[in-house]
């Protein structure tokens, strides 16, 4: 029986709005009410489940690609710091890039608020809508941070979004990360993103850590994902599912391909599993 559901958000659990709508919330609440646990497994930086629309539903959160794990009460129960030496070297090697440094409390940017907002205005409308859904917490971002400011914090993830025509920058940054494979790994949800964490911080490791804390075996975990940062998770667990619109590699990595996220295939699958298996008693 499944005792823990873990699902990616954008492109998987969420529909076109990239938000927790009625269908999503009813499935997650049904899973929790049945005695099971539900974890949001996302590359997003989530400070509380309420901030992404889950209200008082008692979910866990495996966020920042497994670098931060929140318990049901919203407290940080586990985190994986990046090597400070790597962060310092990265700052020296790429002083011109608007990298985002995720810490346990904030997301730090070297550019100013004005520069950051101007960059967002240059994005497509669809992308701006998606980002608005991802960054609801006021005070989350601290701007104008110096290298010393950043190096003084515990950094768990580095984000960077490339733009069309940035092939040379993308190759330089990818080569830099590859040359530091013992200190960092890039597991982005799309080719245009860099989502850099410690090599031991992945969604797969995060969900597995949570399952162990709950006393659950891997075959009591069901995972759902659609992007490049979901591959390790989809390969790790026997009960792994990818929606129809997932990346081809994600669909190959999953054991089962289900319907479209636009039609809420994941929430429906969660409900069907709970109905079929009945109540679950977590050890």
From TrEMBL:
Alphabetized, the UniProt keywords read: Hydrolase
Family annotation (InterPro entries): HAD-like_sf, HAD-SF_hydro_IIB, HAD_sf
**Would the keyword Nucleotide-binding be found if you checked this record's keyword annotation?**
no
Its GO CC terms? cytosol
Q: Which GO terms describe its molecular function?
A: magnesium ion binding; phosphatase activity
Keyword hit for Manganese: no
Q: Which domain of life is it from?
A: Bacteria
- Which NCBIfam families does the record match to this protein? HAD-SF-IIB (TIGR01484)
PANTHER family attached here?
HAD SUPERFAMILY HYDROLASE-LIKE, TYPE 3, PHOSPHOSERINE PHOSPHATASE
Give the protein's recorded name.
HAD hydrolase, family IIB
**Organism of derivation:** Olsenella profusa F0195
- Taxon lineage: Bacteria, Bacillati, Actinomycetota, Coriobacteriia, Coriobacteriales
